[in-house]
Amino acid sequence: MSRRLIVTADDFGDTPEVNGAVLRAYETGILRFASLMTLRPAAAQAAKLALAQPGLGVGLHLELCASEPEKAGARYFFSAAARAGLEGEIRSQIEAMLALGLQPTHIDGHINVHVHPVVFPAVCRLAREYGIPRVRLPAGEWEALKGFPGAESPATALLAGVFGAMGAWVGPAAEGLARPPSWGLLRSGLMKEDYVLWLLGRLPEGTTELYFHPTTDESLRAAGAPTPSHQSVTELETLLSPRVRRALEEHGVDLVSPAS
Questions:
Q1: How sure is the predictor about 69, in pLDDT bands with cuts at 50, 70 and 90?
Q2: Domains of the chain
Q3: Which of 47-51, 57-61, 114-118, 179-183 shows the lowest mean pLDDT across its residues?
Q4: Whole-number Å distance between alpha carbons of 93 and 61
């Protein structure tokens, strides 16, 4: 089997700076997909940019919490009212994308809240209803990360374990949908050139997704830790990197586009 790579930018529509980064990374870098936040102020601008670039695939970046995913997760477990309103909220964000003229190519979630055991089955049901072919499921990054300098830690291992367990729990709900292993969770906001080069040498056969949080805002530059939003001009530079592009060619990795 060949190795194929989906490259996605999250938070499309959040700010004009993120929108500009998505456009630049698509036009001159390796980016082929973006995930749109329909509730954010720059969503309409993002949709306009995307419609002018039909080769850019745009999916839904589902928002069910702006922060504190643990509290949101507890709400869906313990609040019947929250569970009752869940499908309606997901549907409203899908409909908002359609109203902007965009047919979603995939669904994922802000802070990966969509992987929650209550949320993921609802996401998959609606993806099938609306003909959205792919959902994100973080998986496999821990094994690829091992050995990268400074990346292994108890906190990272715990995060990998939690999402690995949730993925095993909810995965069957995605029957009939594409759900390639998705990498970016364990170094969210720190997808620097050296780490991405490391990952490219460890891609499994088949299709894998790498996701990023690029921006053109020079005040947001990842150093030893992610920025508060995880958005970073550093990640834009990774998407534009000639070394990354050469590594794709050297490892025989094909970039996935919406038409492929």
A1: low
A2: 3-255 (3.20.20.370)
A3: 114-118
A4: 9
Contact 9, 25 (CB under 8 A): yes
SS (H, E, C) the chain: CCEEEEEEEEEECCCHHHHHHHHHHHHHCCCCEEEECCCCCCHHHHHHHHHCCCCCEEEEEECCCCCCHHHHHHHHHHCHHHHHHHHHHHHHHHHHHHHCCCCCCCEEEHHHHHHCCCHHHHHHHHHHHHCCCEECEECCHHHHHCCCCCCCCHHHHHHHHHHHHHHHHHHHHHCCCECCEEECCCCCCCCCHHHHHHHHCCCCCEEEEEEECECCCCCCCCCCCCCCCCCEHHHHHHHHCHHHHHHHHHCCEEECCCCC
Cβ contact 34:12 at 8 Å: yes
Q: What is the mean pLDDT of residues 81-88?
A: 84
Per-residue pLDDT tens for 46-63? 999 999 999 999 999 999
As a whole-number percent, the residues of the chain with pLDDT over 90 amount to: 82
